[in-house]
Amino acid sequence: MNFADLGLAEPILRAVREQGYETPTPIQQQAIPMVLTGGDLLAGAQTGTGKTAGFTLPMLHRLMGKPPAAGARRAVRALVMTPTRELAAQVEENIRAYGRHLPLNSTVMFGGVGMQPQINALRRGVDILVATPGRLLDIQQQGHLDLSKVEILVLDEADRMLDMGFIHDIKKVLALLPSSKQSLLFSATFSDDIKALADRLLKSPQLIEVARRNATADTVAQKVYWTGRERKKDLLAELIRRHDWHQVLVFTRMKHGANRLAEFLNKQDISAMAIHGNKSQGARTKALSEFKAGTLQVLVATDIAARGIDIDELPHVVNYELPNVPEDYVHRIGRTGRAGCEGEAVSLVCPDEELFLKDIEKLIKRSLPREVMAGFEVPSTERAEPIQIGRQTIGVRGPARSGGGGGARPPRDGHTPRRDGGRSPAHRGNSPKPAQGSGQGGARPQANAEGARAARPSSGGGGSGSGRPAALLGGPRRGGHKA
């Protein structure tokens, strides 16, 4: 099958060909015909499967089929909401690339940059708006945005938006939209919160799930290095040097941890930069640009800042610190091994993180192979200690436990029984969870690396770009690679 078989208009097919792509991925083969019918859609797809083109291409086709009346002022007819600045910018770049031969305008709105240029774009007239929830509501509440003519709504990476505490903003936006719109919800995971949001938003939706729920891609080789907490940074530098790694995406839990690790690597003559919510948009854009170009060897990122990092054939992802929310592990390593390309995901795990590792293995339904590198073993005196994230203490329950028998060897496989029914403290939080089906959905309290709703300044995207994007998010490629 190729894109011409999916019923898309010739100007869109020409733009796809000009990007060098021919064969749609599985989610595109399923999603594009469904979206073209005008019905609602709930799609589950891991990052890197080409989901962005799965909604941008048919969205463009549907909008071009009903042009505005001659002389009429352009109104926002399609709204795409994303959780982060980077992802918003990437999606809007895709829309520009695939809609380059269509008489449709698009713009992106995000925090961290001036508001006036975004308001000016709306005044000129916009058909397709890509936005993060916080900035969108800021501009709407100032009276500069009318969403009453929206025909298509897309919630991209809805699971992350709920994790970041955007459920209340999403509900406010939904109240501004006409009930007759087509709604498309894309999520990497189908949690109870996502199901509750889908029940609230979607009308008799069609369902697509192209990968097993919470599965990790078979093209990613996963490995754990069991080491001491104070030996991680030296082990990381050794792995990078020994294997001559380039374009290494490294994850930390906290912003200050990302800064310290980048500084350490630079002192080791390994070029590194950190990106997180406290970095200016200019600094984040510069780091991403250099990393994509291959001139920056290591990019150190927190989970929230890394959303929207999409690089074809990214070879290495390193979990310098395991995430305390196991679903984030799937998101992290999904940035390598994309569209049939092989990748490697390495996790540096100390005794403090043993419970996190077991939670991850339970989620992905597989045990990860452990290795110990000579010279970087866990010290015989090291014991598991609680991990402090903000005001929460996580990782160790009850008496301090050793990491797999004195901390000198990897922990045994299996899952430790818990009095709380197996949910980590990050899932429990400090406030009661709304009843399922209440529509409160995903304000899931958790000790996230950058907080939840408090991270609002990080909720926008970075720079809209124009013309042909340097790296498309989910752009179709020859040979069955992603679109």
Quick structural gist:
This protein has 483 residues and is an alpha/beta fold. It has helices at 10-18, 26-36, 51-64, 85-98, 116-124, 133-141, 158-163, 167-175, 192-201, 232-242, 255-267, 281-293, 303-306, 326-333, 354-364, 425-428; strands at residues 41-44, 78-81, 106-109, 128-131, 152-155, 182-187, 206-209, 220-226, 248-251, 272-275, 298-301, 316-319, 343-349, 370-371, 387-389, 392-394. Helix 6 packs across helix 8.
How are the elements arranged and paired?
Blueprint: H1 10-18, H2 26-36, E1 41-44, H3 51-64, E2 78-81, H4 85-98, E3 106-109, H5 116-124, E4 128-131, H6 133-141, E5 152-155, H7 158-163, H8 167-175, E6 182-187, H9 192-201, E7 206-209, E8 220-226, H10 232-242, E9 248-251, H11 255-267, E10 272-275, H12 281-293, E11 298-301, H13 303-306, E12 316-319, H14 326-333, E13 343-349, H15 354-364, E14 370-371, E15 387-389, E16 392-394, H16 425-428
Parallel strand pairs: 1-6, 1-7, 2-4, 2-5, 3-4, 5-6, 8-13, 8-14, 9-11, 9-12, 10-11, 12-13
Antiparallel strand pairs: 15-16
Helix pairs in contact: 2-3, 3-4, 6-8, 14-15
